[in-house]
Amino acid sequence: MQYIDKTNVKFKDRAYTLLDSFIQGQWQQSENCYVNLAYENFNNEKLTKWLLEEQEYYCCYCMKHILKEAKILKDERLIIKNETTLEHIIPNKSKNSLDYNKYSLYGEIRKSVFFWDESKMSSIKLNMPPFPHILAYENLVVSCNGEIPDQGKSKCCNNARGNKDIEPLFYVKTVRTDIKYDFKGIIICDPKYDQTIKFLNLEHQTLQLFRRCWLNLPSKYTPLDVINASKDEDLRNDIVDDMDISMITTSDKTTIKNSVYWKTFMNYFWFYLYKVEEKL
Ligand SMILES: [Zn+2]
């Protein structure tokens, strides 16, 4: 995983202007309160693009690269809409201000976010920051759509979490060393993060397989070869056949060669970069 820095003014200033404009636009002078101030009424398209750029197009949890496929398919807008979800760190629908207390320990949340309770709607116009948690830049990150190729219908990341209580690991400055991956693709971390990993379904066998294949990619191949192999079955077979059988089993090889799996697998090249940078 990688740390997400929410103090970068390049993204923060743009997001603040957009969110402030939407929120103040919901103020109804005749009612002397905000009307329909809800995340569901906010067009998140621009913000999603900026947050993706901020996160270098990686899912905040599983590290899937979201734009790679879009660039190949040349329909960026549609892909971003279908491939991403915006994750509320303090859940959007939370009715419990205790959630705020827990999450305020992370990132810039305490400084820039307050708990918005619709039932106690204020008749005072907001002066932001802080922003209400339902629409705060510091409370929003981009997650993938959570779709994992599988026999059944497995989900990961935001779509697996729902409103469950997790540790927002991308706001832990030492996340790079706190969350490690071994050559089998298994996550190595402090047991205090086990429940978070479980709720996000990050140890799903397919995600482990993707990580295992990237971490054991034979050195003569590059990520570009892997991407090209999505349309070149011979190359795909060569790459997989060259993988070390002691790490990638025959059953793994059969699975990963399947083009549906491969098209998702190729977007997890962050683990190749991880291996290079960590000198594994
Ligand atoms: Zn993900």
How would you characterize the overall build of this protein?
Helix content is 41%, strand content 9%. By secondary structure, the chain is mainly alpha-helical. It folds into two domains: 1-203, no CATH class; 204-280, no CATH class. α1 packs antiparallel against α2. It binds zinc ion. Zinc ion binds next to β6. Residues 59, 61-62, 64, 143-144, 156-157 line the site of zinc ion.
Topology:
Blueprint: H1 9-25, E1 27-28, E2 33-34, H2 45-54, H3 68-73, H4 76-83, E3 84-88, H5 97-103, H6 109-112, E4 113-114, E5 131-132, E6 140-144, E7 147-148, E8 154-155, H7 158-161, H8 175-178, E9 180-181, E10 187-188, H9 194-199, H10 205-215, H11 223-228, H12 233-241, H13 250-257, H14 259-265, H15 270-277
Parallel strand pairs: 4-5
Antiparallel strand pairs: 1-2, 3-6, 7-8, 9-10
The chain binds zinc ion.
Zinc ion is lined by residues 59, 61-62, 64, 143-144, 156-157.
Bound molecules: zinc ion
The main sheet comes to: 2 strands, antiparallel
What is the number of E strands?
Answer: 10
Please state the average pLDDT score: 93
For the largest sheet, list the strands in their spatial order.
1-2
Number of domains: 2
**Outline, from the CA principal axes?**
elongated
The CA-CA distance between the termini, in Å, is 16 Å
The secondary-structure element order is HEEHHHEHHEEEEEHHEEHHHHHHH
* Count of alpha/pi helices: 15
Q: pLDDT under 50 segments (min length 5)?
A: none
Please compute the radius of gyration using only Cα atoms. 21 Å
Helix share bin = 40-55%
Strand proportion, as a percent range, falls in: 5-15%
Structural class: mainly alpha
